[in-house]
Design a protein that fits this description.
binds zinc ion
Length: 280
């Protein structure tokens, strides 16, 4: 059996179905890759083809950590592990940015959380099914997301600062459920990057989105917004979440869930016909 702490932890992840692979280590602040100017000490892969090679298999994990007992642990995110991780890095303004995001949308739910060796936080969420891309700064400065095709450095890996990655003891994976990814967060993550220029204030749809709608215009506005989102290939599930949020925030009074669902169904049918994807 692997005797190193990191080897044991890697096996623990593998047993729980999380694919792992070995990273370089950064003992004493120097990366084991040997490059004096390494820009990601202890954070880059020690194997060449990690997307293919990451593994949950005990013999594979044993072999890696037998060879490199001090290798940091990469835990693969995305559909393969059913994980999406939000990385809050206070060194790049992540603390203020996550406060702002939460006050604009909703507080993050209680979920499994790790303290990173760099003084930040990794919040773990269940992967929602639709593809979640990796992103850096999309939600705000210092906020990175690791989803499909990504990985995070997992406890108890050692950071170049000398601090280790550790579970928040009140939010340890052995005792805490991983929360589903909130719908509003998913919507932010799968939408297109923020436009460089603000929405044209003369655009009629911008009026719909920003100013909202009174009783006489709610259904027409809802249908236009739904049509716009579906035509831009926003996932219908995400579209539903956005329409609900929009209605709550901008309609006086808000539309009922049934009204929103009915309109979305009808617009989705038209859109499917438009794409020629509806047969029979
Ligand atoms: Zn390196």
């Amino acid at each position: 059996m692997p005797s190193s702490l990191l080897g044991k932890a890697a096996q623990w992840y593998g047993k729980r179905g999380y694919p792992v692979f070995p990273l370089h280590s950064a003992a004493g602040g120097r990366c084991s890759c040997g490059s004096a100017g390494c820009d990601a000490p202890g954070k880059h892969p020690r194997i060449s083809r990690w997307p293919q090679q990451a593994s949950t298999a005990a013999p594979m994990i044993f072999t890696w950590w037998h060879r490199w007992p001090d290798a940091n642990i990469a835990l693969v995110t995305g559909e393969v592990s059913h994980l999406v991780v939000l990385d809050v890095d206070p060194r790049h303004g992540g603390d203020a940015a996550i406060d702002e995001v939460q006050s604009r949308f909703a507080p993050l739910p209680v979920t499994v959380t790790a303290r990173t060796g760099g003084g930040g936080w990794h919040h773990f969420f269940q992967h929602p099914g639709p593809r979640v891309p990796n992103s850096s700064g999309l939600l705000g400065p210092g906020l990175d997301v690791r989803g499909d095709g990504g990985y995070i450095v997992a406890p108890p890996s050692l950071h170049a600062s000398g601090a280790s990655y550790d579970w928040d003891s009140a939010r340890h994976p052995a005792t805490t459920e991983i929360a589903p990814l909130p719908t509003w967060l998913l919507a932010l993550l799968v939408s297109s990057p923020r436009p460089k220029a603000p929405l044209d204030p003369r655009s009629p749809l911008a009026d719909v989105v920003l100013k909202g709608a009174g009783e006489g215009q709610r259904n027409t506005s809802l249908a236009r917004l739904a049509g716009h989102l579906l035509r831009h290939r926003v996932d219908p599930y995400v579209t539903l979440g956005l329409l609900q949020s929009w209605s709550q925030a901008n309609c006086r009074p808000p539309l009922t869930e049934e009204e929103i669902q009915r309109t979305l169904d009808s617009i989705a049918c038209s859109e499917a016909r438009r794409r020629g994807g509806l047969h029979g």
